[in-house]
Amino acid sequence: LWHEFRAHVLGAFDLWNIAPPAIPTILISFRRRSGAKNVGRVIANENDLIGVIKEGHMVKHQEVDLGTMGFRQQLETIRRSNIYVGAHGAGLMHVMFLAEEAVLIEIH
């Protein structure tokens, strides 16, 4: 059922056939607090996490707050990554739209 739902959504947005990035790409999903949005799960040492990822060679990285993006842009961003990093919680539901060869790193 999930596979068919995934295929239907990605097909509807014409995002099914996006090729994986040639250079491994790490997508770091942050949920930032603001006056209008008080999310429960944040990564307290996000600067340290970004620093460690930047030390990696031969990889790209992208930092995003998916809550600030439209749904199509969220899906396209997810599809163009190989490694998805984020805090435990419902914000990681986008994992179902990752490419088949992609992996999730869930931070508790």
Detailed description of the structure:
The protein has 108 residues and is of the alpha/beta class. Helix content is 28%, strand content 19%. It has helices at residues 2-12, 46-55, 71-79, and strands spanning 25-29, 60-64, 83-87, 103-107. It has a four-stranded parallel sheet, with helices on one face. The chain is globular.
Entry keywords:
alpha/beta
The helix-strand sequence is HEHEHEE
Content-based structural category: alpha/beta
User: Biggest sheet, in brief?
Assistant: 4 strands, parallel
Strand content: 15-25%
Distance between the termini: 28 Å
Mean pLDDT level: 84
Q: Which term fits the overall shape?
A: globular
> How many β-strands, per DSSP?
4
Topology at a glance:
Layout: H1 2-12, E1 25-29, H2 46-55, E2 60-64, H3 71-79, E3 83-87, E4 103-107
Describe the structure concisely for a colleague.
By secondary structure, this protein is α/β, with parallel strands linked by helices. The chain has helices at 2-12, 46-55, 71-79, and strands spanning 25-29, 60-64, 83-87, 103-107.
